[in-house]
Amino acid sequence: MKLSDTWFTAFSEDEAGRMVTVLGRDELEEFIASGKYKERVEVTWRYDSDAEGDFPGERLAERMEEVEETLRWAMEKKDKLAVLTGVYTGGGERVWVFYTRTARVFGERLNMALVPFELLPISIYVEADPEWEEYKDMYEMKAWAAD
Predict the structure, then answer these.
(1) pLDDT tens-digit readout, 64-94
(2) What is the DSSP letter of 76?
């Protein structure tokens, strides 16, 4: 399976009505159809928003990008243990959504990948999602973004 690096951007709102930027990955049909990626892992980094609104300031956004690149490399490059499918930013948090073959190994690899960083204010949520329901819901935003 070839992993695409094609993304789309859409906008949504959180429960409090604050704007959330959605970065969604396209062309994942083979991964969904494979049936191998049955668990969804959400890595959430909560932050204090900047004076401009509900988004991270420039320095924090750069740190988040560095963490994202590290996690993508650790999860995708070697053996495609997990696939980053979406990134939600706004309302005081950034959420990276991965689909993985095994959450246990994902957690071990995440810990190893983040060793070079200081302790990060992240939380991890895992849920069985063999039908990729969260991804499909997010993917519907692509059509809205095109309109």
Answers:
(1) 999 999 999 999 998 999 999 999 999 899 9
(2) I
